[in-house]
Amino acid sequence: MIGHADIQALIPHQGAMCLWDEVVAWDDARVRVRTHGHRDPAHPLRSGGRLHAVHLCEYGAQAMAVHGGLRARAGASVARAGMLVALRGIQLYVARIDDLAGAIECEAQPLAESEHSQQYAFRITHAGALIAEGRAAVMLHGDTA
Predict the structure, then answer these.
(1) In the chain, which ranges are E strands?
(2) Is residue 81 part of a domain?
(3) Chain centre distance of CA 73
(4) Number of C-alpha atoms within 13 angstroms, CB side, residue 31?
(5) How many domains does the chain have?
(6) Residue 108 belongs to a domain with what CATH number?
(7) What is the CA radius of gyration of the chain?
(8) Mean pLDDT of the chain
(9) Strand order in the sheet with 30-35
């Protein structure tokens, strides 16, 4: 099982800002991750005691980073750091997520990749219902490993 500590070793997000608890499944074409942390009263993205659905964009972006880290590790490499530069086609189907009982899951898959950038699609669900979806683009930094 790939748990929270393993995920933190793959991505730059640490501590409470590492939003995913576990990797449920992955291959070269996609990753599926799960968390229960959205209910934590000390969640670092909460505002006014609530965790708004717009933060699901960060969850989607971190799922991308997890997938990139897993793919790099499988190739005996380290993923390059990246900066989120665009969100497109974002659809939020709930107003907030701190009140959702049980886990949320995300599936992310690369749509386009180059030496300098990546674009992924992500879908986030709760109890089998779609709560957010969209695309995110990342510009990669540094040399390839």
Answers:
(1) 2-3, 22-27, 30-35, 82-92, 104-113, 117-126, 129-140
(2) yes
(3) 17
(4) 23
(5) 1
(6) 3.10.129.10
(7) 14
(8) 95
(9) 2-3, 22-27, 30-35, 104-113, 117-126, 129-140, 82-92
Amino acid sitting at position 104: I
pLDDT at 142 over 80: no
Question: Residue 140: pLDDT above 50?
Answer: yes
Considering the domain boundaries, does residue 145 fall inside one?
A: no
pTM of the model: 0.94
Q: Which residues pair with 88 in a beta bridge?
A: 135
Three-state DSSP string of 22-46:
EEEEEECCEEEEEECHHHCCCCCCC
Is residue 110 a part of any domain in this protein?
A: yes
Tokens in use for 23? 């990797």
Question: Which residue type, as a one-letter code, is found at position 122?
Answer: F
Q: What are phi and psi of 30, to 5 degrees?
A: -170, 165
- The tokens 């590492």 sit on which residue? 18
Q: What span, in angstroms and rounded, lies between the C-alpha atoms of 1 and 93?
A: 30
Identify the domain containing residue 89 by its residue range: 2-140
Q: And the tokens for 108?
A: 């992310």
In a domain, residue 136? The reply is yes
